[in-house]
Amino acid sequence: MSRTRKEPLTRLAYRIAESAAHHRSKHLAEAVRASGRTLTDHWDTVQRQQERAAKAIDRGWLLAARRVLSDGRFDREAWSPVWETYCQAVDRLLSDRHAGLSSSELHTELQDLSEEFEHLGWDRRWLWVTIESIVLEEVYLGRFQIKLRLDRIGSPNADDDFDVVALDPNPAGGDSEVTHPHVSGGRLCQGEATGPIRLALEQGRLMDFFQLVHSVLRTYNPESPFVRLDAWDGVRCSECGANVSQEETSYCEACGDDYCHECSSYCRNCDQTHCVACLVECRGCGESFCGGCLSACEGCGTKGLCGSCLDSCQQCGREGLCDACRAACAECKREGLCADCLEHDLCTSCRGVQAEENDDANDNEGTDKRETTRAETGPALEIPAGRAIAADTAVHADGLAQAPVPVPCG
Amino acid sequence: MRIMLINNDGGGFADYIDVEPNTTIKSLFGKEIGGDPADYLIRVNRQPTTAEYVLQEGDRVSITPVKIEGA
């Protein structure tokens, strides 16, 4: 029977076996090259020691020769294991010529796959199966396709060479790349299946591989998903990027985005919810407020003050003054007075009282002076009636006006 | 007698082991795996099997957990 008349699964199995054999041989050849390089490096070291020892012996420097050979003892002792490793690698490569995955075994694997799963398909690069719809904790995730690179079957460390494609995607609300709690960007986070998957692929156990991936897809691990199922229909926080359920989000009235509870708070005045970036700390009390609930001091112009940190003057009633623009009277201790109402640290009332006291003091001082002056200058002069002093009468420097000398009485 | 055991639980294992004649799947499972067989897909020679199946020389037994936690 010519190759072209063989059934498709047979041709596919043959192709996979050839590819696996090639990769296996390549892997074994790489092992020979690596161990051979180690062997060569080791041989160079031993050879240099031998040459040095030979030179020393030729010159009769026996002590030096013994020293060189003693220093190289460890290298000589390591020679056997290095040589043995190289020989084993060569033997594996030579004896493995007809080993690896047989096309008949692979054909059986492929037949099992076509019977076990909803659909088995392949092209030049990929082999895939379709699995039934996955529903986890009442969240519908749809059907998935597990796609495996054909040229990685039978290769060691091929555990990352497959994709999980959502055929009826219902991605997480906050991240369209997450189509399953453990699938992001088409890559499965294998978790506990990592080791078995790698071993199954290396040994060409296709049924085991696809069943392992299937087992991971139908299991929900709430400890470490990309997105939790209880937040599947959730929203991504605009600040930290966390995917949270609708109940756990807050809408910022200022910027109009959604935030998680960690990244949002509320204005202490109007109670509106805002993100932390849209809230501002009052420069007086440090509480958080939205921009609309902060003002500037009418006195000094300091901005970012809340209503509690601004007050009015207790005397004139001037509003919107910060604590720094209001002070207490030094005399009566009345608080909350603006700069206009405080003069020399005294309120209006106290200034008035002080002024009266000063006037009284001045008056008393003036009376005493007049009496003293009278005693020195004689009886008071009586101005006859009708002899008012003219307005333009000159005034002496001592305050006494210059007046026509009246006729003394009596 | 020798059988091929493929254990896809834990870190994975695939090799020949020796078992006593007349060993059943149930006893093999209890000895090599533990746990509830209902939580595993057990196949002998690539076919689903019962717990009472008596193993034969050269049988290929694969055991795969039904649920595996991803990360």
What does this structure look like?
The complex is a heterodimer of chains A (410) and B (71). With 410 residues, chain A is α+β, with helices and mostly antiparallel strands. Chain A contains seven helices and 15 strands. In chain A, the strands form six sheets. Chain A has a four-stranded antiparallel beta sheet, with helices on one face. Chain A has a three-stranded antiparallel beta sheet with strand order 5-6-7, with no helix packed on it. Chain A is elongated and about 135 Å long. Chain A starts with 7 loop residues before the first helix and ends in a 33-residue tail after the last helix. With 71 residues, chain B is mainly β. Chain B is built from one helix and five strands; from the N terminus they run ββαβββ. A five-stranded mixed beta sheet of chain B has the order 2-1-5-3-4, with no helix packed on it. Chain B is globular, with a radius of gyration of 12 Å. The mean pLDDT of chain B is 89. Classes of the chains: A alpha+beta (410), B mainly beta (71). At the A-B interface, α5 and α6 of A face β5 of B.
Question: What does this entry show, briefly?
Answer:
The complex is a heterodimer of chains A (410) and B (71). With 410 residues, chain A is of the alpha+beta class.
| Rg calculated over all Cα atoms of chain B | 12 Å
Q: What order do the SSEs of chain B take from the amino end to the carboxyl end, as H and E?
A: EEHEEE
**Quaternary class:** heterodimer
Our Rg estimate of chain A from Cα atoms comes to 51 Å
Strands of chain A, total number: 15
The termini of chain B sit apart by: 39 Å
The secondary structure category of chain A is: alpha+beta
